[in-house]
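RETRY 2/3 - previous attempt timed out on the joint model. Re-submitting the same 986-residue input unchanged.
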Amino acid sequence: MRKTVLRVLIGGLAPLAPALLAPTAGASELEAVLAKGVSTYKTFCSHCHGIDMVNAGTGSYDLRRFPLDQRARFESSVMDGRGDMPAWGDILLPDELESLWVYVATRGGRDPYPDAEEAGAAPPPGAPKPEDSAAAAAGPPDLELVDEGRLTVCLARNGGALSGWRHEGGSGFDYRVAEATADGMGLDLAVQWFESEPEEESDPVRETYALLAKGLCDLVPAVPLYEGALGPPPAENAAPPRWDGMPTRDWVEFVPLEPVAATRPYMRAEIGIVTGPGVERAIEGPEDLAGLDLGVQQGTLSGAIALAEAPQATVDASVTFNPGPDFLWKLEGGAFDAALVDVAAFDFHRRQNPVSLLTLHDWRHPLGFNIAMAGLERNPNLVAAADAALADLAAAGALAALAEAEKIHYAAPREPWMQRRLTRRDLRRAP
Amino acid sequence: MKFERYALAGVLALSLAAPLAAQTPEDLAADASTPGNVLTYGMGYGQTRYSPLDQVDRSNVGALAPVWAYSLADTRGQESHPIIHDGVMYVTTHAATMALDALTGRQLWKTALDYPAETPRVACCGIVNRGAAILEGRLFRTTLDAHVIALDAATGEEVWRTRSIDFKTGYSMTVAPLVADGVVIVGVSGGEYGIRGYIEGYDPETGERLWRTYTVPAPGEPGSETWEDEAGDAWKTGGGPAWLTGTYDPELNTTYWGTGNAASWNAGVRPGDNLFTSSVLALDPKSGEIKWHFQFTPNDPFDYDATNEMVLTEIEGRKAIVHANRNGFLYVLDRENGELIAANEFVDEVNWAEGIDLETGRPIHTQIYHDAVAGEPVTYWPSALGGKNWAPMSLSDQTGLAYINTFNFGMNYKAVEPQYRAGVFFFGAEFSWEWPDGHRGALRAVEPTTGEVKWEQRSDIPRNAGVLSTAGGLVFTGAQTGEFEAFDAESGDKLWEFQTGSGIVGQPITWERDGRQYVTVVNGGGAVYVLFAGDERLAAVPPGGNVWTFALPGE
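RETRY 2/3 succeeded.
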């Protein structure tokens, strides 16, 4: 590393006799800023945070622990106050604020000023501006993350074949894709698990918005590229679903929603036909369901399509069931002969029941949803970085490989990327 | 030496005539000898913190046990002196005032305070409050943002609120008010912020300010000749806060307030004695008029506040003040005229002065003092936190000894050009600690007139809690590591301790109800030593204040 040693002696007296290491460029500037930081700290901060930033950390924050990549948080705490910390914004001058950051980031002059990748978006004072530096372009972009150094992803504990909680790590295709995406971004994966409400009781679109707005994670996978599911919020406020670590309260917390943006899709959700044990004939489309007992999940897209596509007599004789995992078990048990279902639901059922006698046929309804990851629109760098990582995975064929490893049927995304709002006509097969 | 009681026959007769429920001026004056109530800061106007109660004594203190604890719901350092009247305990934090059933610890009411988010920045040494005063059904307290307020003692409702000054210019208030001669008297904090210190009197009925006496005179006023800087404006930022409660002698109708250090610390830029900083002022409580003054540390470069308690007692037949100054000397003054009777070191190392000239009352300086004023780097003892910090001592009526929590460390120091900016530190000095090997403090039993140390109990981490002595032959205090402790007043042997769960920097009191003696202390570590010393051994002692009340096991 290009580093040089500077000695900073304070008044010839203080026990501070630090070796300050800094990039050669701007070293003397940094030294000057640090010297100012020493006096500014003494004047503004020492009475709570300790002389030379040494304190027991019980009565006030031990600044030696301050995360070096969170300069923005540092500045807002200093200027606006935070908890017991008083606000200094009305009297602190901008250069004093900067000098305090240098003082804190060097642990009071004891440590080198952190490298750019550690220090978040903060170039060391006096360092060449990024646009002047060819080296700066080589580094990864600075990402604003919920948890430093990690990509935090919200996944449903009860996400079936797509995501499931494990004591260590997780399972499911979305989990694997999140892992690979984080890896591609040079980050470790952290998962914020949540409990998705049964669909009839919640709006998964609002769940996604609320999870992101609450700041629980950087990305939410399994988001359909569907008009209305992205962009401006669907409501002003919404309650996040129950998440791991959520405080127990007797009231529901609503958070103000923010616009959401999506990465490119990494899979496509499709609807297929499943038949039960007694059905041995080939099924190449809904028209082949004639003569079979059709089961329909109430209030689902697949159920609506079944009613739109199957022969009228079959529809007339169909039986309606509540949606959920039980539905396919009923098919397994012979309550009806055939159904239209989300392919992922079939994959999950087969995982639950390895000796399943159900058959998923090859036919797929042309209506499908490209599935992407969502992040906050105001954090475009992050969404773009995840998008790039997904592009690399797709190009390398890694997504299909992950699906195979997870034993799920994989469909690659395809045009149109964004599904427009559905009409009744969309439920019928395209001619 | 005999403890002087104010419960003179005539005073007692007056209090009998007063309504039973009210806390009359006579009740306040009799506080030291009426242990059923604790109506004044320091357990009596003389602040001896000595109680005639002797149910808990050397023989049985080992059985002392908690009766109740009450959470203050606050993580700041807790220095509040509880007030007890008629079975109700009143206690304060920086953020609230609370009334508790003294026997059960149940909350009767709690009145929260609010202050602007900028306020804590003008509190040099801890976001603290030292307690309330009581008079005729009203509580009086100060707020960090420099207001004086009165609450209805029955309901906690605010009766009046008067702003003393704009806190943003460096002023704050942590002091427990003194009610003397029908006036609510308070002083201001801010000696490290270039304030001009003052003491004020308020009308307890209306909250109207009756007087303000500056501790630093303006040009032309008496004492202004001791500010000799050429520019003639050092007085404007001259310091001299008054952040600890004064004592009061009803017979002389005089209140005694210590004043803080001169500002900035750089004494070279404010030549002259800098009256009335680092002094005691004898004031008329009705008018605030200065009757006499005595200065302990003229032209102080070391942050030697003289705010420590001016304990009233009788020495050799003279009405006296006993005062353990930050500067390392224990003073005895005649409180009728301010004449110096004795001044002796009460800590092991004092290197800025060889002694105090009993004729002039002035320190006999060593070269270290002169070097410090001249801007040379020096190591001086005791440090800016003093040989004793704010934590009040006790003067036992039974043993005649002063029980003092002393500090044993020095400071590396160099005066630099001060730069004044309203509302931020105005040190004018660079400094760091000079720690000794081993103990940084000791609880000491000191003979007031000679400074002779009868016994001491050392501790690596210095105690900075108030001290209480009792007729049971006991001395109570607390450790910053959380132990509430009882010592034998004669031998210094530790007889009992109880771990309270957080550091103690509060003020123990004792009281009696229905024939049972109770001892109460507020714990909650923090404030000046924790904030400034950087003593990482305290990382294992969590903050968080409680009121703890102890008694001997019941029948």
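The CA atoms of residues 217 and 401 of chain B lie 36 Å apart. Closing ticket.
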